[in-house]
Write a structure and sequence with these properties.
- With 234 residues, the protein is mainly α.
- The chain has a domain of 79 residues.
- Helix content is 80%, strand content 3%.
- A two-stranded parallel sheet has the order 1-2.
- Helix 1 runs antiparallel to helix 3, helix 2 packs across helix 3 and helix 4 runs antiparallel to helix 5.
- It starts with a helix and ends with a helix.
Length: 234
């Protein structure tokens, strides 16, 4: 029992530091959520101007739908702002236990992961925007009016873009697994076809469902996979 309390006393400063970081993270999340909720009207107007599609009328299905959209906006912004702080806190927390070389590697990984997420998000956004414009034009040519629910419209664009941004993080995970020797570089090479198949299946689960958009989303993931194979050689 005495050893147990000695161990607790040893790690107590680290636990206190972790608790304070979690408190700050929660405070940041709540503040940004409230700011996003209260400014949802301005943000919504900007987004609709950005994703304006000809011959499409964006409509609501309920007088209370704006409240749901405002909450989703606040939640989405809170996540976007909180993730960099979480990454910084993680680096600051584990930094003292790392060697100089490990710190340099970790420091390089954080901006790379943020950059890949942003690239994936923006790429998915424009692919989806192109596909929605194409579907709207097809509907119009068939004499079908385009009245799209604003909640479904925005959630499909933002969620799909965010998911593709997360998928773009996959090379970092593969590199990490190779460094830990959980999988080998040769295994990545030997299972290249299976990886391609899984990539196509994964992107097929995301809207839009047309073949051109599927190939456009799957191609950069294949290139990232090949880039991971090349980088893990060194």
């Amino acid at each position: 029992m005495e050893n147990f309390f000695v161990t607790i006393d040893k790690f107590l400063p680290f636990l206190e530091d972790l608790r304070s970081r979690l408190y700050r993270g929660v405070i940041i999340f709540v503040v940004v959520f409230l700011a996003g909720f209260l400014s949802a009207g301005i943000i919504l107007r900007k987004i609709l101007n950005l994703v304006h599609i000809d011959q499409v009328t964006i409509a609501t299905s309920s007088p209370f739908q704006f409240t749901d959209i405002a909450m989703d906006t606040g939640f989405f912004l809170a996540i976007i702002v909180s993730v960099p702080y979480i990454l910084h806190s993680f680096y600051a927390f584990v930094g003292p236990a790392l060697t100089r070389r490990e710190k340099i590697r970790l420091f390089k990984t954080i901006p790379l992961s943020v950059g890949l997420f942003i690239v994936g998000f923006v790429y998915g956004f424009f692919i989806l925007y192109y596909a929605l414009g194409l579907f709207a034009a097809i509907n119009t040519s068939l004499g079908i009016a385009n009245f799209w629910n604003i909640g479904h419209f925005l959630s499909q664009i933002l969620i799909t873009s965010a998911l593709l941004g997360l998928v773009f993080e996959f090379p970092i995970l593969l590199s990490f697994l190779v460094k830990l020797k959980i999988i080998s570089r040769q295994a990545l090479i030997d299972n290249r076809r299976i990886a391609y198949f899984l990539t196509v299946c994964m992107t097929a689960l995301l809207p839009p469902t047309d073949g051109v958009s599927l190939l456009a989303m799957a191609l950069p993931l294949v290139l990232l996979y090949e880039g991971t194979v090349l980088l893990t050689k060194h």
